[in-house]
Amino acid sequence: MTTLPLDNIECYNIVFHGGTRGNFIGALMQCFIDNSPVYVSKYGSCHFDKRCGQNYDPASLSACNQAQYFAQSPKFKYLRPLDTSKPLIIMDHMIIDYDEFIEYFPNGKTIVITHTHDDLPSMRANLLFKNIIEHIDLMVGHTIINEYSSVLATNKKQATTIWKKFTSKYIPELESKLYSCHKLSKEEYRRYIDIELETLNHRVTFPPFEVQDKHKNNIFPLAYDVIVKDKNYVIDLISKLMNRPATDEVYISYDRYLSAQQLIYDKTGLI
Fold first, then answer.
1. CB-CB contact of 246 with 32 (8 Å)
2. CB count, 10 Å around CB of 195?
3. Distance of alpha carbon 191 from alpha carbon 212, whole angstroms
4. SS in 3 state form for the chain?
5. Whole-angstrom Cα distance, residue 250 to residue 35?
6. Which distant-in-sequence residues (6+ apart) come within 8 Å of 73 by Cβ?
7. What is the pLDDT of residues 220-266, one digit of tens each?
8. Which residues does residue 92 pair with via DSSP β-bridges, in sequence order?
9. CATH: 3.30.1120, 3.40.50, 1.25.40, 1.10.8. Which one for 11-117+204-268?
10. Which of 151, 240, 227 is nearest to 140 (CA)?
11. Which of 88, 61, 89 has the alpha carbon at shortest distance from 75?
12. Exposed e or buried b per residue across 53-68, where buried means at least 16 C-beta atoms within 10 angstroms of its C-beta
């Protein structure tokens, strides 16, 4: 097993709340590494681009997840790459201990996608389409669906359960529209999102923050809305923290992602 600390490991950590485009940022960072296109689904999701998790050592990831689940620290103590010569990209929905991350990955970089209360409707729209409707509709429009067919089947079942439970309790008139959920009116989508925000007590998990001086070389906040508003800023940020140039494919993949977000905007007025 690799000795600690992991000074020579090229490690990148994306910390984000669901619905804040973290999978896209991770896939884009992978594009910086290998210049391969970012896969973007019909609904603008990058959940099917699984390259970011390919360099985990499975046993170490399991130990890390268990430590995280039981709120044990340090969880990064357990995380190892399969190949130490290749970068390790971590995707994390949990608030992390920055000092601990830097202790075990001294040269590691963490992007924290921050959001505000005003971003919550857009975030819920993302989750509604990319985590529920897409998995019910299964119109991902690419043969990659075959590679993850078992995962998609599980996700479809979970998404169906979520839709039925929520609509039956709060919006019964939408319960029967399960299999036409990708063809609702803008008013129906906004009603779903508004009621969800009212009833599920969503809160801001990663608010904007000032980076402490001791973390300035390792921790980089990135505002959620900036990801769709300022492509060049985001690309420049990632290029500098990864010390890698942005290739033509980085710009092409970014534009493909932005174009795909139009579907959700057209259906909800939220982006």
1. yes
2. 16
3. 40
4. CCCCCCCCCCEEEEECCCCCCHHHHHHHHHHHHHCCCCCCCCCCCCCCCCHHHCCECHHHHHHHHHHHHCCCCCCHHHCCECCCCCCEEEEECCCCCHHHHHHHCCCCEEEEEECCHHHHHHHHHHHHHHHHHHHHHCCCCCCHHHHCHHHHHHHHHHHHHHHHHHHHHHCHHHHCCHHHHHHCCHHHHHHHHHHHHHHCCCCCCCCCCCCCHHHCCCEEEEECCHHHHCHHHHHHHHHHHHCCCCCHHHHHHHHHHHHHCHHHHHHHCCC
5. 7
6. 67, 97, 100
7. 999 999 999 999 999 999 999 999 999 999 999 999 999 999 999 99
8. 15
9. 3.40.50
10. 151
11. 61
12. eebbbeebbebbeebb
Q: Which two tokens stand for residue 221?
A: 């906040």
- The answer to whether the beta carbons of residues 193 and 121 sit under 8 Å apart is yes
Residue 46 sits at the vertex; the CA angle it makes with 43 and 51, to the nearest 5 degrees, is 155
| φ and ψ of 148, to 5 deg | -120, 30
pLDDT digits (tens, 9 = 90+) for 71-122: 555 677 777 788 888 898 988 888 888 998 898 899 999 999 999 999 999 9
**Quick one: tokens of 113?**
């996608």
Alpha carbon dihedral 183, 188, 194, 200, in 10-degree steps, equals: -70
Token reading at 66: 């268990």
The two structure tokens encoding residue 117: 């209360």
CA distances for 256 relative to 16, 20, 106, 190, 251, angstroms? 22, 17, 34, 25, 9
pTM, to two decimals: 0.90
The full set of domain ranges for the chain reads: 11-117+204-268, 118-199
